[in-house]
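Sequence in, structure out. First:
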Amino acid sequence: MNELLQHTSLRNLSDLCVSAIDLSLVQFKPQRRRVRPRRAEKSGFRYYAVNAIIVGVIAFMPLFVTQQCAAQRVVDKMVATVSAGVKTDLITYSDLVWQLALQPDTPLDNPTSEDLNRALRLLIDQRLILQEAEKLPTINPTPKEISDARDELAKNFASVSDFQQRLMRVGLTSVKLDEIIEQRLKMEKYLDFRFRSFVVISQAEIAGYYKDVYIPRLKARSPGRVTPTLEEAKSEIERTLTEAKIESDTDAFLDTARERAEIVILNPI
């Protein structure tokens, strides 16, 4: 399983190489001092012995650096980039697997191309919404909202233990999970701000839905059940129609955003 992108730095290794080279230059610098003839041979031996050690260290450093680079090579795979004109977001294979892990009953062992591509399409849409949402700093969720949303997410699984085990299997840390939840809350707040505030459901729409959809569906699902009056079902119908309009407006927004955005698939999955 691919782990989280590991960002490594060779600055320490580079500094070590520079230090070793500087040391060698100091050792090779000619020393102008008088020495007694009897000790010249001994001093010369020490001089070449010390420098031979330094040269060996310098010769070994490239191999050491190469081995360190190989050991710290990024394991993750870049899948796609998404840019709506403000910034460019990278989607990795880990992002896809994390998305699958947060979906109950979705297999994590050898995920299918269909599941991965479904997750990719969802993440592309999320990135497009998030890039717009981040233009409004006032929609940042509070720590309590993030904590409550995390608890609600865990309820979708068989148990908290099962939820935590899925996270561990894909290397999704608690810090990264909170980051994902925070992004989701930002998107929800943005969609509410952009669409929900402007949704208006007329009485005619409620009455039409009650007659054409609500009653026939209720009779088909629960034959013999007492049918609620229009007034009794009004609040439920209004919520249903509101959510449907928000979903429709969101789909239209995403269609336009996809057309304008630059979406690049780096590695087909």
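Second:
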Amino acid sequence: MASRRKPPGKGRSSKGRPSKEERPSKARPEKDRPNKGGSNKHGSIKDGSSKDRPNKDGSSKDGSNKDGSNKGRPGIAPAAGGLGNIRNSIDAVDARIHALLNERARFAQLVGISKSASGKAVDFYRPEREADVLRMALKRNQGPLRDEEIVRLFREIMSACLAQQEPLKVAFLGPEGTFTQAAVLKHFGSSVRALPLPAIDEVFHEVEGGIADFGVIPIENSSEGTVNHTLDMFLSSGLKICGEVELRINHHLMGKMSGTEAVMRVCAHPQALAQCRGWLDEHLPDAERVAVSSNAEGARRARDERGTASIASRAAAEIYGLNLLANEIEDRQDNTTRFLVVGRKLFSASGVDRTTLLVSAADTDDSGALFRLLEPLAEHRVNMTRIESRPSRKRKWDYVFFIDIEGHVSDPSVAKALAALEERASLFKVLGSYPRAVL
């Protein structure tokens, strides 16, 4: 029979040791107690440093992420306390930015040397590469700067780096102050040599003759449709489309007078007059509407003629010294114009591209003629985003078709579709395969 043990005394364990409540603590003071990883509570490791101790989110103390990137993390933490300290931090950031800009410029020089010894900027310009850089910048952007500002800043950086060899020469539908000039600056940056010309056909001729490296011309407006003169130029020109620009259009009424009551006539490009038709009907129903070759030409007349106002951009008001009489008078808030960049050769794919075709059939008035031309696109699942018809100028009631599709001519599905389309067409011409507008 098992003997009964005497219960342990109060405050004693069954083996005679003090209970947990009475046992003296051997723990280190709270501030020196190590974490499981060997670091103490204020983040330093056994040797007293904190250089290898990651933050809770997995980033390192210098702000980089697990993968070594700095996405969403500033390189220098804002200084605490006082405006002077904050300004010192800004100066430090500026110094780093400046050093990195010069480093980028040196790399751009190396790219130029590796490509050609001719030193001409047109030999180094790669629209597909620039589009890729801008898309990566947008993907990285987490604010507070808006996407539009990020794109503009990176565009200017690339423009300045490219201009180290020689500025690009870009012809555009002028004079200065037009929306086409704004499209040049948006696409190429301000380190180019912009060449204003009075007509669309002259822009084509300057690029064809090698006087300009590229040209920028309007192609369509979201409210008023296609600029037919631009389409017609492609019937006889050998130039290629190298890029596109989408520009939000804000129209302003301007003149030398101080108010709209003194306006007797309004001069503007026909497209601008059409885009502001509703506002003009409501606010200036009795004013004469005069169509001119460009909005900038209208601004020039408003400067020189009594009683004349014009519709143009803010830049035109500054250039010609005019007063803004009414702001943003376009009828639609999403009023946008698309511009084309034309050059002398095709470029490689960027990954997000558009291709423009010029096609026709032997008899465009035959039943199903257009269907037979477009059928290969559907068979190879190539998306058509736009189609326009224009007179062929060969015989009456005969037409050609301008078609925009998604993808690049080098994409396998696009290549197969175009090969089948070419077999069916009496006229087949790839006008361009180029990066789609980034913003």
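Remark: The longest strand covers residues 240-248.
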